[in-house]
Recover the amino acids of this structure.
């Protein structure tokens, strides 16, 4: 049996060894499998239910819907889901403040027993085993059923249509999806998924010598809009501005999976001549926060309850930054109730001028792990405020290489000014203290995670 197993190639090996036409057939077969989870059954009805007009209702009306839905979810979870049967108190939620009477679901709880947060009534055939990218070093396996997956997809597709970027139109996507081996040094670094009408581009091969190839391919593909990693779009945008190359004509770019600064977002908008909307979500809860034209991040209250809490688990005040705690309202068979995401956001104080009354955020700050540990034991978030003084920097990353040593790595732009980096190092000292050694270095590229994302803060010592 062992020898037979060795002879059978893995799915990836089969893909790599196949001619181009067969690779395209294989990715479309995988797309068809995923669509059975995402857009089958009552999907169209759900898209209508997630009409963005819901978010124009008053905050009181939106919260009333959420509380009613949450109490239904709690009743089902206490009856049918082993983890919640053992841990949820038998209470009725009457206000959003009552949420703090419920325990927080940790990633460790799911990692320890992933099927314990699945309803005993769920068909095992309907479950989709999903994995996070493990960007912090510890991957997570969890399950979503068809109902939850369709809810996630319907909420996102309703928002796409709201921004005139409907599913089914030709689109380009940059993500961590495997397209071609990392060692490949000649294009194509993309493949067309006919079933999605999606021009899938590899985020791993975005090196300066290949930018023009990507842009030519995007123009030839005649895509209507773009999605995916914002850092990928920003790299191409910087090249467009520097080189004067022709940009593909896009209606909009909808980014996900990671964030960029508003300054970088403006660069992408200028280079591609279209609006850019950033989103926030996770594989566990879906794409549940969308940026409006006023650059506010709006919570899709029809799909989720998101709390922003401090280190003691208390709701933060407007203008303060805290951790995102999520309760998904779509699907009762694989519920996530008060799930600690590990991500940070800054709560806005007032309604947005766009006319939506759902809770909104001023900024998405990254992950709890995107912090530097100082020699005196403090955890300091090192965000865009530190690198703000840099001139001509395309990308940056803060690497803590020792308990008392930080290196700021930068990928230079054409107008890069090394002298300005001294001001950046000085700014870092102001935040991290005199005991921390701060230096900087110029690099050609910054490493990505296994899923192709750029982490803005990394720790490289044990």
């Amino acid at each position: 049996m062992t020898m037979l197993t060795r002879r059978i190639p893995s799915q990836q090996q089969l893909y790599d060894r196949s001619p181009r036409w067969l690779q395209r057939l294989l990715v479309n077969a995988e797309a068809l499998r995923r669509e059975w989870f995402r857009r089958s059954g009552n999907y169209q009805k759900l898209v209508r239910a997630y009409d963005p007009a819901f978010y124009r209702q008053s905050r009181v009306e939106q919260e009333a819907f959420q509380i009613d839905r949450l109490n239904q979810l709690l009743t089902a979870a206490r009856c049918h889901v082993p983890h919640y049967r053992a841990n949820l108190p038998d209470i009725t939620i009457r206000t959003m403040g009552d949420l703090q009477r419920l325990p927080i679901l940790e990633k460790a709880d799911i990692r320890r027993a992933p099927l314990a947060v699945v309803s005993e009534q769920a068909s095992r055939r309907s479950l989709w085993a999903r994995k996070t990218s493990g960007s912090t070093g510890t991957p997570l396996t969890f399950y979503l059923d068809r109902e939850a997956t369709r809810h996630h997809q319907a909420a996102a597709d309703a928002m796409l249509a709201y921004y005139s970027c409907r599913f089914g139109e030709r689109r380009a996507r940059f993500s961590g999806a495997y397209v071609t081996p990392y060692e490949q040094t000649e294009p194509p670094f993309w493949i067309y998924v006919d079933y999605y009408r999606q021009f899938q581009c590899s985020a791993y091969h975005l090196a300066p010598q290949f930018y023009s190839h990507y842009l030519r391919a995007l123009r030839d593909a005649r895509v209507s809009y773009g999605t995916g990693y914002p850092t990928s779009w920003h790299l191409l945008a910087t090249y467009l501005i520097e080189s004067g190359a022709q940009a593909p004509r896009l209606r909009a770019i909808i980014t996900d999976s990671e964030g960029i600064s508003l300054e970088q977002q403006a660069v992408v908008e200028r280079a591609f001549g279209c609006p850019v909307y950033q989103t926030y979500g996770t594989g566990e809860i879906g794409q549940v926060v969308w940026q409006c034209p006023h650059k506010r991040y709006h919570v899709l209250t029809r799909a989720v309850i998101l709390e922003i809490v401090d280190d003691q688990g208390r709701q933060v005040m407007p203008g303060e930054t805290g951790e995102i705690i999520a309760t998904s309202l779509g699907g009762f068979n694989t519920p996530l109730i008060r799930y600690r995401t590990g991500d940070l956001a800054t709560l806005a104080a007032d309604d947005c001028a766009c006319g939506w009354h759902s809770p909104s955020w001023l900024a998405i700050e990254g992950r709890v792990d995107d912090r530097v540990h100082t020699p005196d034991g403090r955890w300091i978030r090192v965000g865009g405020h530190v690198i703000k003084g840099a001139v001509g920097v395309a990308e940056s990353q803060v690497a803590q290489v020792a308990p008392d040593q930080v290196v700021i790595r930068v990928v230079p732009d054409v107008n890069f000014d090394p002298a300005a980096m001294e001001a950046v190092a000085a700014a870092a000292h102001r935040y991290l203290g005199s005991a921390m050694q701060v230096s900087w270095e110029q690099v050609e590229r910054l490493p990505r995670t296994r899923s192709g994302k750029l982490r803005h803060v990394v720790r490289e010592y044990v």
